[in-house]
């Protein structure tokens, strides 16, 4: 397949894949994504930074060939830097090794067994493992490696191209977005921020305590002062690194601006739904922004994106056979996985309708406490809410809105 490489700076090209059609990736809903990888031409060697998802390499090879033609160089990859083992970044490594048997592959020590597990054809391949501070010179182009465990897997690492100030950050600082242009400046800043926020909420939240420490470490290594671009493995390349670094520092510490409460609920016969709507009216009466997610139809990856920069959440579900209505279960498991308590102890309210014994609110409260939330109120009613109950719901929403404003 013929496809064009995109020149980032002299001797450095984007040679990734535009996956226009993907709509779901490990439970994350998206409208396409990119698998970014990069080709760096040194005076002595040519290095490939990461590669692409299995079965998606047609564009990848077309762009690599185009880059070699533009540079007028012999078609030969000498080095692969494998920043992460997950399939969307390593799936075509076996193809690269088969085509260039003498290629040298560099990865973190933790990545080596994972790569051999993912790619059985490389079980006997000799990898070069590197650690923070190690460097590799390919002739006028020097890579400095930085281990970045849990950003976002234990094996993850960053690679800095020193001469050009480009940080190849793999999954960190990424976005699941697919547009025809490659740079941050080519996309509306609001769209870019929303894509980066959703990515952080779904993939990086668990590692929030490590984000600030890693940025400090990059500064100590002299990388931040030399940083001109951040080139992640998904989405747009940042020509203004401060933009995304500032966002990560805010999201990882909970220092966002404004007051917002996110509602996450499901309903059986509309009683819990009516409670949610009445509570939301109370919240809005205090000038606090509301985001509503009806889990009968809405997606959990969108819901948790708004949880990221909310100061409180309201979670509602009716009781079904002594347990929360199952429609809320998926997002509850997901909240527990993401551990928003790593950022801050957000306040939470649980509510719902019951027909007899009840139990949903108690179970939801315990689950949320375990996920790092501070449950400040529980409200469970019998059957349908009357006007008096709906007014109580309104007042509860108002009360919690006042609480977060304080």
UniProtKB/TrEMBL annotation:
Coiled coil: none annotated. Residues 261-401 form the Flavodoxin-like domain. GO terms for molecular function: electron transfer activity; FMN binding; metal ion binding; oxidoreductase activity. It comes from the Archaea. Pfam families: Flavodoxin_1 (PF00258), Lactamase_B (PF00753). CDD domains: flavodiiron_proteins_MBL-fold. SMART domains: Lactamase_B (SM00849). InterPro entries: Flavodoxin/NO_synth (IPR008254), Flavoprotein-like_sf (IPR029039), Metallo-B-lactamas (IPR001279), RibonucZ/Hydroxyglut_hydro (IPR036866), Rubredoxin-O_OxRdtase (IPR016440). Gene3D superfamilies: 3.40.50.360, Ribonuclease Z/Hydroxyacylglutathione hydrolase-like. This is F420H2 oxidase FprA1.
């Amino acid at each position: 397949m013929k496809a064009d490489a995109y020149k980032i700076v002299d001797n450095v090209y984007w040679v990734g894949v535009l996956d226009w059609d993907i709509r779901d990736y490990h439970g994350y809903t998206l409208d396409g994504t990119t698998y970014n990888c990069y080709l760096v031409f040194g005076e002595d060697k040519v290095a490939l930074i990461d590669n692409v998802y299995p079965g998606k390499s047609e564009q990848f090879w077309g762009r690599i060939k185009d880059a070699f033609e533009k540079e007028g160089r012999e078609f030969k990859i000498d080095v692969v830097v494998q920043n992460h083992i997950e399939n969307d970044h390593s799936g075509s490594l076996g193809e690269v090794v088969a085509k260039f048997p003498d290629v040298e592959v560099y990865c973190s020590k933790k990545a080596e067994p994972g790569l051999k597990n993912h790619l059985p054809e490389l079980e006997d391949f000799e990898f070069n493992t590197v650690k923070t501070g190690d460097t590799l010179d390919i002739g006028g182009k020097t890579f400095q490696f930085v281990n970045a465990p849990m950003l976002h897997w234990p094996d993850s690492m960053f690679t800095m191209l020193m001469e050009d100030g480009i940080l190849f950050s793999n999954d960190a600082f990424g976005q699941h977005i697919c547009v025809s242009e490659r740079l941050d400046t080519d996309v509306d800043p609001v769209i870019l921020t929303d894509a980066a926020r959703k990515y952080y909420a779904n993939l990086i939240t668990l590692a929030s305590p490590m984000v600030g420490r890693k940025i400090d470490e990059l500064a100590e290594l002299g990388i931040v002062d030399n940083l001109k671009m951040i080139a992640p493995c998904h989405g747009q390349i940042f020509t203004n690194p401060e933009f995304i670094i500032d966002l990560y520092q805010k999201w990882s510490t909970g220092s966002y601006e404004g007051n917002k409460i996110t509602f996450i609920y499901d309903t059986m016969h509309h009683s819990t739904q009516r409670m949610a709507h009445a509570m939301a009216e109370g919240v809005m009466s205090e000038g606090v922004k509301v985001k509503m997610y009806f889990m009968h139809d809405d997606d959990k990856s969108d819901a948790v994106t708004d949880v990221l920069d909310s100061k409180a959440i309201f979670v509602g579900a009716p009781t079904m056979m002594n347990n929360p209505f199952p429609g809320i279960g998926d997002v509850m498991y997901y909240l527990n996985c993401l551990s928003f308590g790593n950022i801050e102890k957000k306040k939470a309210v649980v509510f719902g309708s019951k027909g007899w014994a009840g139990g949903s609110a108690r179970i939801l409260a315990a689950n949320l406490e375990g996920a790092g939330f501070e449950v400040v109120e529980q409200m469970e009613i019998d059957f349908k809410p009357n006007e008096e109950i709906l007014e109580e719901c309104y007042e509860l929403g108002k009360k919690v809105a006042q609480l977060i404003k304080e």
